Amino acid sequence: MKLFTLLSLSLLSLAAALPADTEPGMTRWDKRSNVWCVVTGKTQGANVHCRAGPSTDSKHVRYVKVGDLLRFTCYKKGECVDGNCTWDYAVGNIYGDEPKNCYVSGRYTDDLCTAAALGKC
């Protein structure tokens, strides 16, 4: 019984250490993709908007640069940009600063960031 209690407490402490939600409506138990993709589509080093939602009308959160390698966890359907209607959700410390999660139009992510690879948010 003591071993069971000890194991249970250890598992609970590990669960409490999991990262907080990164997307509204998601819990720490939801499975997420972890796909690294390169920002593409314009001149190398050019800025691409990363937005609060899947639309060019959504608030600008930050710029990412063409050629950057970013971590994406899921996608949402949204406003179409040059015929591409998916928006890929970038997470984490993009430039070593404070995390600012945001959406990049699928028009500007490489072929590794497919809907099948990412899954819906």
Give me the secondary-structure category: alpha+beta
Question: What level of helicity do the residues show?
Answer: 10-25%
Number of strands: 6
Task: Kindly provide the radius of gyration, computed on alpha-carbon positions and rounded to a whole number of angstroms.
Answer: 17 Å
Mean pLDDT: 78
Give start-end ranges of low-pLDDT stretches: 1-30
Strand order of the largest sheet: 1-4-5-6
DSSP summary: helix tally: 2
The proportion of residues in beta strands is 25-35%
CATH second-level architecture of the domain at 32-112: Roll
CATH homologous superfamily assignment of the domain at 32-112? SH3 Domains
| Highest CATH level, the class of the domain at 32-112 | Mainly Beta
Q: Helices and strands, in N-to-C order? A: HEEEEEEH
